[in-house]
């Protein structure tokens, strides 16, 4: 068994779609106005995004995008930095990793 569906409530569905597609390559399968979207990855994950008026996740809540190499983590970090996102450089922790705030109101970990 594997987890293959996640629904996130986000403050801005369109901005969240743009972020996830640009940096992580997920495919938009369906949208319904500015309030709902279905995204798919190449491993079978179905990520749905739903618009919420008050989005508050616990400070430790995050989702992760595992990359194939440290070089890929570094590339995504540099792209985000070049795009003006507030990101600290990757560091060695439980993995080669960094965290970034997604525009929808949640944290994303990029790791290898």
From TrEMBL:
Gene3D superfamilies: 2,3-Dihydroxybiphenyl 1,2-Dioxygenase, domain 1. InterPro entries: Fosfomycin_Res_Enzymes, Glyas_Bleomycin-R_OHBP_Dase, Glyas_Fos-R_dOase_dom, VOC_core. It comes from the Bacteria. Residues 2-112 form the VOC domain. SUPFAM superfamilies: Glyoxalase/Bleomycin resistance protein/Dihydroxybiphenyl dioxygenase. PANTHER family: LYASE, PUTATIVE-RELATED-RELATED, SLL5075 PROTEIN. This is VOC family protein. It comes from Paenibacillus violae.
């Amino acid at each position: 068994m594997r987890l293959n569906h996640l629904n996130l409530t986000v403050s801005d569905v369109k901005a969240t779609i743009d972020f996830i597609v640009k940096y992580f390559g997920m495919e938009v399968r369906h949208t319904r106005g500015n309030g709902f979207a279905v995204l798919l990855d190449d491993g079978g994950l179905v990520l749905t995004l739903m618009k919420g008026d008050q989005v508050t996740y616990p400070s430790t809540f995050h989702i992760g995008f595992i990359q194939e190499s440290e070089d890929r983590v570094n590339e995504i970090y540099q792209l985000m930095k070049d795009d003006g996102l507030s990101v600290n450089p990757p560091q060695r922790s439980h993995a080669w990793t960094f965290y970034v705030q997604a525009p929808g109101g949640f944290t994303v970990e990029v790791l290898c």
